[in-house]
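Structure tokens please, single chain.
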Amino acid sequence: MSKEPQSSSKIWMKFLPLMLSVLTMVLTCRKDILSPEFRIVSLSPAMTEILFAIGAEKNLVGVTTFCDYPAEAKELYKVGDFSNPSMERIIGLKPDLVVVNIPEQKRIKNQLDQLRIKTFVSSPRTIEDIYREITAIAALVKKEKKADSLIAYMKKNLKPIKIKERKRVYVELSSRPLVTIGASTFLNELIEMAGGYNIFQDLTRDYPVVTQEQVIKRNPEIIIVLHPDGIGERLGWAEIPAVKNQRIYSGLEQDCLMRPGPRLVQGLKELKRIILE
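Here you go.
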């Protein structure tokens, strides 16, 4: 006896579980493309660079207007500038984590704490601090191997040169007031690695305010200026060796010296070129 052909409804029911399984896979893949599992808003230009460097850029859903490197970072959604990001925009992105710089963004962190939005505090003082932060953020996005490779690259290239006589170096971050660098900063470490001696490394504050008289007395042989200003025209500075010998350097790529991230490698190369000239 021949069997009756199955009805279309029975055939549909037979393949329904398989079709639902395929549909679920498609939707899951689509969700991963459109929305990363761990959503990060980075208010730190340096940490934005680090997240790109360890291959976690897909986790970034928002950044500040100051997050301009690498070039792809410029295409990301902007939540505002470094000092005054829009809390409304940050909340709208539904982040799992917001990266903040301390002490500069302490007020913003307090607001995020009140809203019970998790934060990752970036506040590196030394190069070792930078390595620790790279490791910590990488663990959150499951990029530990990439982080290890990045740290290995930085350690390989951030090494001190051997030199007998070090040049006295004055770094000026601001002219009104005069702001320089103290001992416990990664820029001070870079100066030493490059063969220089920071004339204010005895000061305990990270970025102390100093006087013109102090600079003149400490008699720098090299002056590095990270802002546009006519140092050579200042009253009483004419006899400073750096001024007399025209060893004043400005126009450097600030981000390679002041952003605690991978580009410190380029910053050190530039400092070596200047100090060993």
